[in-house]
Automatic annotation (TrEMBL):
SUPFAM superfamilies: PLP-dependent transferases (SSF53383). This is Acetylornithine aminotransferase. It is found in: Cytoplasm. Homodimer. Its EC number is 2.6.1.11. Pathway: Amino-acid biosynthesis; L-arginine biosynthesis; N(2)-acetyl-L-ornithine from L-glutamate: step 4/4. It holds the Pfam family Aminotran_3. It comes from the Bacteria. InterPro entries: AcOrn/SuccOrn_fam, Aminotrans_3, Aminotrans_3_PPA_site, Class-III_PLP-dep_AT, PyrdxlP-dep_Trfase, PyrdxlP-dep_Trfase_major, PyrdxlP-dep_Trfase_small. It is an enzyme of class 2 (transferase). The modification N6-(pyridoxal phosphate)lysine is found at residue 236. It comes from Fictibacillus barbaricus. The lineage of its organism: Bacteria, Bacillati, Bacillota, Bacilli, Bacillales. One of its GO terms (molecular function) is N2-acetyl-L-ornithine:2-oxoglutarate 5-aminotransferase activity.
């Protein structure tokens, strides 16, 4: 019997080595990794620049605590906020922790206590993040939760307006709902959110934990809609697998997070920041980002050509290399078939196959994945 709490439903095999998009299990079985550790290893496995950054910094100093100046943290913060509506960074070690910082800052800065989030959203597993999350199954058995969250239907401006009152501190949202089934709202919805926040002096918190760091073909997904967030949160792709999270906020919030107001031991260590810097040095280049956007577009076109009218497929949607194939039925058996044929994917919600290749994926690898997907749908269609 395993000595682990069975909190995860795991596959039977282990991945023991990887290079770029390709990974191998303990039996030397080869796969294309279109999970990227759930949108984490955005530069693929063992990217040479990231490997050399971790080697170099690990021989100097790893951790000093935030009792001291940390030059790597200053530099990383500058890189993250450059040419964005955000001015300041707070570093931590995970997405849920970044969201905790955002929730605390929003309450302290506004002096108000109500935060509006959306049905089907996902914001992490801490008490704050879980309470913010708009999915009942995540919260089962953990009540009472943090009470100040109100969940409204996604993509519904009217319901959103109805939920706002004088105690509303913030609206908190993902740009594209990741875990909840890769749901993309209509363009007018994003415009309305922006307008509501600007006019009613409500903070806009954008959870970019999954969508950030180049995943959608922009540094941050909010850039697709010209949103003006007061706070954003990051983690997943920020360290390419080394644990690091961040909350970025506008300068006006500075005084609400003065000395002693918030903190974490591990947040922003020289090692974590050096690794993350090497990731951003590659991803935050216009040429790199436009290539991601282009590869995503072509891949979606290829998928649409072969699958669009397939009876098992409902919709293909996404942005950049955050792509979902919504099916007519639950996708667990599809994901298993793909895995047996060398393609690793991860479901989103019940009915969506989520495709999260590394941003460095090659066109040949995308073609191969499209071919495997096509075969899979043909197979299930003829046998059903
Ligand atoms: C994964 C995720 C989180 C939680 O991040 P952890 O690092 O697992 O705490 C929060 N928000 C979104 C949108 C996510 O996808």
């Amino acid at each position: 019997m395993s000595a682990l709490f069975p909190t995860y439903k795991r596959k039977k095999f282990q991945l023991v080595k990887g290079n770029g998009t390709v990974v191998f299990d303990e039996n030397n079985q080869r796969y294309l990794d279109f999970t990227s550790g759930i949108a984490v290893t955005n530069l693929g496995h063992c990217h040479p620049e990231v490997v050399s950054a971790i080697k170099e910094q690990s021989e100097k100093i790893w951790h000093t605590s935030n009792l001291f100046q940390i030059e790597q943290q200053e530099k990383l913060a500058e890189t993250l906020v450059k040419d964005s509506p955000l001015d300041l960074a707070f570093f931590c070690s995970s997405g849920a922790e970044a969201n905790e910082a955002a929730i605390k800052l929003a309450k302290k800065y506004t002096g108000k206590n109500k935060i509006i989030t959306f049905e089907n959203s996902f914001h992490g597993r801490t008490f704050g993040g879980m309470s913010a999350t708009g999915q009942q199954k995540i919260k089962e058995g953990y009540g009472p939760l943090v009470s100040e969250f109100v969940h409204v239907p996604w993509n519904d401006v009217e319901e959103l307006m109805k939920a706002i009152d004088e105690q509303t501190a913030a609206i908190m949202m993902e740009v594209f709902q990741g875990e909840g089934g890769l749901r993309i709202a209509d363009a007018p919805f994003y415009e309305a959110v922006k307008k509501i926040c600007d006019e009613q002096d409500i903070l806009l918190i954008i959870d970019e934990v999954q969508t950030g760091i180049g995943r959608t073909g922009k540094r941050y997904a909010f850039e697709h809609f010209n949103l003006n967030p007061d706070i954003i949160t990051l983690a997943k792709g920020l360290g390419n697998g080394f644990p690091i999270g961040a909350m970025l906020g506008k300068a006006k919030c500075k005084d609400a997070f003065g000395p002693g107001s918030h903190g974490t031991t591990f947040g922003g260590s020289p090692l974590a920041c050096a690794v993350s810097q090497s990731v951003l040095d590659v991803i935050f280049q216009d040429a790199f980002l436009s290539e991601v956007e282009e590869k995503g577009k072509q891949f979606m076109e290829t998928l649409a050509d072969s699958l669009q009218n397939h009876p098992l497929v409902k919709e293909i949607r996404g942005k950049g290399l955050l792509i979902g194939i919504e099916c007519e039925t639950p996708v667990v058996s599809y994901v298993e078939w793909l895995e047996e044929h060398g393609l690793l994917t991860v479901p989103a919600g019940e009915n969506v196959i989520r495709l999260l290749p590394p941003l460095t994926v090659s066109e040949e690898e995308l073609q191969m994945a499209a071919e495997i997907l096509k075969q899979m749908f043909e197979q299930f269609h003829t046998s059903s």
